[in-house]
């Protein structure tokens, strides 16, 4: 039985005081039996959030990490540093990182290895561009990205990975994939994982949908047999909305 997981991706939003105020508002309310709630926040807010989350069921995640432990990589943050803070999750390979920071499938894979090396749970993003969707390449793109991300990852590690299927054309646009389309692609991604490992491993992996998920559509996605949660950008920024998203995943 896969536990539903709602992860907020704040992207480049919120100061430390804004993050603290948000957490005070969701504490207790976004803690719902049977649903895992995660907040993936900017690096600067992580120490305060990790501290605030102590004793709660809300997990804190980062939005990126470097694949090396340390070194001359100006501006980067490593898994060692995130683990040291008490961070539990890390988003890897978000389409914005792939598009604006030239993250290749190979880099994504190195980052997945780095996350496991430091006991962080990766949320690995895959998904197609609009032109790839229109060219009927959605499943091919997701297959290539998924297989690359899992390269060299053991079955014992694979079951811990959270995959986020995010069609790029649906991110921040208000144009969400239909729940049936998202289910179709996510079921396919699960079959790709089965091909890499086995049916039991694929059954255990949690796969989220992401792309214009809102409180009013989250339950529809989560109602699909293969959709185990959501990675949410815009609608995760307001406390009331984040609480509704977690409630909607029950
Ligand atoms: O990581 C989250 C996704 O990019 C979705 O963002 P959105 O919910 O604002 O469309």
From TrEMBL:
It is an enzyme of class 5 (isomerase). InterPro entries: Aldolase_TIM (IPR013785), TIM_sf (IPR035990), TrioseP_Isoase_bac/euk (IPR022896), Triosephosphate_isomerase (IPR000652), Triosephosphate_isomerase_AS (IPR020861). It comes from the Bacteria. Substrate binds at residues 9-11, 172, 212, 233-234. Pathway: Carbohydrate degradation; glycolysis; D-glyceraldehyde 3-phosphate from glycerone phosphate: step 1/1; Carbohydrate biosynthesis; gluconeogenesis. It catalyses: D-glyceraldehyde 3-phosphate = dihydroxyacetone phosphate. Pfam families: TIM. The active site is at 94 (electrophile), 166 (proton acceptor). Keywords: Cytoplasm, Gluconeogenesis, Glycolysis, Isomerase. Its main location: cytoplasm. GO terms for molecular function: triose-phosphate isomerase activity. It is found in: Cytoplasm. Its EC number is 5.3.1.1. Gene3D superfamilies: Aldolase class I. Homodimer. HAMAP family: TIM_B (MF_00147_B). Belongs to the triosephosphate isomerase family. Involved in the gluconeogenesis. Catalyzes stereospecifically the conversion of dihydroxyacetone phosphate (DHAP) to D-glyceraldehyde-3-phosphate (G3P). This is Triosephosphate isomerase. It comes from Paenibacillus solisilvae. The lineage of its organism: Bacteria, Bacillati, Bacillota, Bacilli, Bacillales. The gene is tpiA.
């Amino acid at each position: 039985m896969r536990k539903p997981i709602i992860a907020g991706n704040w992207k480049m939003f919120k100061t430390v005081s804004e993050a603290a105020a948000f957490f005070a508002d969701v504490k207790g309310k976004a803690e719902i039996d049977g649903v895992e709630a995660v907040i993936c926040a900017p690096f600067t807010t992580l120490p305060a959030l990790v501290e605030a989350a102590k004793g709660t069921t809300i997990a804190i995640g980062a939005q990126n990490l470097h694949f090396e432990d340390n070194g001359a990589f100006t501006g980067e943050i490593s898994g060692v540093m995130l683990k040291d803070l008490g961070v539990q999750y890390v988003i890897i390979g978000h389409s914005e990182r792939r598009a604006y920071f030239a993250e290749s499938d190979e880099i994504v894979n190195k980052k997945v290895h780095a996350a496991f090396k430091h006991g962080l749970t990766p949320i690995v993003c895959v998904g197609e561009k609009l032109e790839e969707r229109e060219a009927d390449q959605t499943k091919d793109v997701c297959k290539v990205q998924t297989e690359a991300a899992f390269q060299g990852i053991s079955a014992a590690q694979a079951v811990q990975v959270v995959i986020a299927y995010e069609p790029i054309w649906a991110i921040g646009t208000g144009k969400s994939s239909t729940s049936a389309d998202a289910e179709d692609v996510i079921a396919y991604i699960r079959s790709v994982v089965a091909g890499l490992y086995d049916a039991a491993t694929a059954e255990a992996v949690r796969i989220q949908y992401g792309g214009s998920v809102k409180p009013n559509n989250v339950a529809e996605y989560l109602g699909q047999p293969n959709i185990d949660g959501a990675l949410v950008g815009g609608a995760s920024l307001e406390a009331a909305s984040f609480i509704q998203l977690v409630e909607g995943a029950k």
